[in-house]
Amino acid sequence: MNEQIEGIIKNIEKVMIGKREIAELSIVSLLAGGHVLLEDVPGVGKTMMVRALSKSLGASFKRIQFTPDLLPSDVIGVSIYNPKTLQFEFRPGPIVGNIVLADEINRTSPKTQAALLESMEEGSITVDGETIQLPKPFFVMATQNPIEYEGTYPLPEAQLDRFLLKIKMGYPTKEEEIEVLNRAEKSVPIDDLFPVLTIEQLNDLREQAKQVHVENNIKEYIVSIAQHTRHHENVYLGVSPRASIALMRAAQSYAFMKGRDYVIPDDVQYLAKFVFGHRIILKPETRYEGITEEQVIESVLRYVHVPVKRYVP
Questions:
Q1: Which of 14, 68, 28, 42 is CA-nearest to residue 191?
Q2: Per-residue pLDDT reduced to its tens digit, 177-222
Q3: Dihedral sign of CA atoms 291, 297, 302, 305 in order
Q4: How many domains does the chain have?
Q5: Which InterPro entries does the entry link to (predicted)?
Q6: What is the extent of the structural domain holding 292?
Q7: Are residues 149 and 277 located together in one domain of the fold?
Q8: Within a domain: residue 131?
């Protein structure tokens, strides 16, 4: 594991017990320039994970609590007339930050959800016809509760496609939950976190991750997996070429985290369900049978031939 990244993960583990994999995947997305959708029931630590990551990086942290009455201007910002200067001045909204927590994103209207599209894809916002670049890194971690449906607006496919990874937190084990109680007995662990990496160092790591080599047969492997989702008997709509790019970038970041300057098939296989799972649409009869997106991706991986040629730097 890259030493600097290991430092971030260990810092997060002071707060998040038994969530190392979630921390690693979040950093994969951060290095790849993507965004993360955390989906799980309330109280398992989704918000705490985002806060711990932001404090570990010393990055500016903004939180948007999505509600049905939230407006796009509440997210992006608004221009206010200044009578002294006789001009309109832009007051940025909470979207202008390094790490943005979009809490319960499926509780707001599609119009407000769409306000995030440009910022997540282009790294910029448009106000009164003027494009404003967001700070780098710009990283959105959104949360949603899959249980409650009243008063919610399911994310459209175009919005889901903007998230590099979709992750489920899961409940802790008995031993992990006891440790959570021990740590929270006399203090709030998040208050004791300190930055272990600067923004400049993080941006440098992101540039290094882009230099990780992807052999042609690995690219063919990624494309073969993507194409097979488009013809799978249980899939109504397969992944797009954007998803193939997302899987390649995620694999580069994951390989870099593991201290390699090249991607191997294992990287692709491990990340495929997190990158492709939320990008496919299953047929209605498939859902009735209880088959999940993850199971479909696993069946695709079993079917597609794995390249065996090894890249030697």
A1: 14
A2: 898 888 888 777 788 888 998 888 999 999 999 999 999 999 999 9
A3: positive
A4: 2
A5: ATPase_AAA-3, CbbQ/NirQ/NorQ/GpvN, ChlI/MoxR_AAA_lid, P-loop_NTPase
A6: 212-303
A7: no
A8: yes
Supply φ then ψ for residue 130, to 5 degrees: -110, 130
Question: Contact at 8 Å (CB) between 46 and 38?
Answer: yes
Q: Taking 60 as the threshold, does the pLDDT of residue 313 lie above it?
A: no
pTM of the predicted model as reported, rounded to 2 decimal places: 0.89
The answer to whether residues 161 and 124 belong to one domain is yes
Average pLDDT over residues 126-133: 81
As a three-state string, the secondary structure of the chain is: CCHHHHHHHHHHCCCCCCCHHHHHHHHHHHHHCCCEEEECCCCCCHHHHHHHHHHHHCCCEEEEECCCCCCHHHHHEEEEEECCCCEEEEEECCCCCCEEEEECHHHCCHHHHHHHHHHHHHCEEEECCEEEECCCCCEEEEEECCCCCCCCCCCCHHHHCCCCEEECCCCCCHHHHHHHHHHHCCCCHHHHCCCCCCHHHHHHHHHHHHCCECCHHHHHHHHHHHHHHHHCCCEEECCCHHHHHHHHHHHHHHHHHCCCCECCHHHHHHHHHHHHHHHCEECHHHHHCCCCHHHHHHHHHHHCCCCCCCCCC
Whether residue 56 is found in the same domain as residue 126? yes
**Residue 311 counted as domain residue:** no
Per-residue pLDDT tens over the stretch 136-182:
889 999 988 776 665 677 787 878 888 999 998 888 889 988 988 88
Domain boundary among 150, 175, 202: 202
In one-letter notation, the amino acid at residue 101 is L
Residue 249 domain-assigned?
Answer: yes
